[in-house]
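INTERNAL TRANSFER SHEET
From: sequence group
To: structure group
Subject: TldD/PmbA family protein

Please process the attached sequence and return the structure record in the designated field. Keep the field labels unchanged so the import script can parse them.
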Amino acid sequence: MLSEPEAADLAVALVEAARTAGASAADAMIGISRSSGISVRLGELEDIDHSESFEVSLRAFNGDRSATVSSASLDRAGFAELAERAIAMARQAPEDPYAGLADPTLLGSGDPVDLGLFDPTVAPLTELEQRARTAEQAARAVPGVSNSNGASASSGQSLVALATSTGFSRAVRSSHFGCSASVIAGDAGGLQRDYASHSTRFLEDLDAAEDIGRKAGERAVARLNPARPASGACPVIFDPRVSSSLLGHFVAAITGSAIARKTSFLQDALGTQLFGPGIIIRDDPLRQRGLRSRATDGEGLPCRPLDLVADGVLTTWLATTADARQLGIQPTGHASRSVGGSPGAGPSNLMLMPGAKSREELLASVPRAILVTELIGQGVNPVTGDYSRGAAGFLVEGGEIGAAVAEITIAGNLKQMFATLEPASDLELRRGIDAPTLLIPEMTVASA
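Return from structure group:
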């Protein structure tokens, strides 16, 4: 794999080729990745995967027109042809008065911040296989588990470089490790499936395979013999496994593109009390070893921690340079992009900060509730905020988690849900988007 300076130099060379071909502006990305994975099922090796990928992407501008082309070759000899093709396409593209690179005065500069994204540890296939086997064995050892969907272990490294014709160039190397298990509990009279997984930047941070497997087995067994609660209004508690999905809906509604197109139910919410007092939703791109950490965004702008919601008040949109121009604001440093794509706004490490009550206190704060541990479907209207999704989980009575429930639908409106939700104190930073246990005091619950 190339070094960071070599990858950055390649991106700069591609930008120079675009300017030579007549581009008024350009940016280029280089992406290199290498990954290995092994899966087992019922004690037998099921799949071995090893992949290496190389991608070069050039976005060339001809005034207000632009086009993006990609290639799988890192050979500089082909850059001139790639640039010519990009310029030819850009000349035929429709005009976009908001398109363009970020203001050069806003770009990140100086030495890149070390966010601890790269672990040089190389996990051999034998080690990955043993990790997967251990996870499945632990899952199948849980009494009540009757079958397996398999277990897997993976590791990989990637290198991404970005360069712009306005003088920015930087490359970042990162690593990832993962392990998962999925099993089935019960018999033909009633089967239930569940899983557990974990992903990290550093191998030493990865949960033990035994713990992952045991958690998958225990989750599947706990779901056996589900009941169907009576339909009606009921408090709903979102387990941390699914509570972060509410942040996903929130983020989608505050992206600059949704606001500019007037397709968001939060269109007029900026500066208003959207959540209850004390609620903080923080985006922290500089977290050490974070799965979404980054010192600069997909346009080269510096990233900084930011409270998107402070004391319940919505403080900002998430805007790329193009979004910002359309909305008449400054870009927020939230541009995100794949190697072959254009920038789009998105968070880094997003979290809803913990509340004062423990999970146990939150469960006991209502006489009866539904604890949701799985969500099904995508029933959310981004324009109105209406929310309706299939769900499964457990009955909670008197603060105690009881019988499993399945085949239910929970419904409400996200604005009302945001305004009334209460977080527990059990926040764990395990994903790119994290939230603690969340209580919604009233939603509509319907049994299938």
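Handover comment: The radius of gyration is 24 Å. The first strand starts at residue 25 and ends at 41.
Transfer complete.
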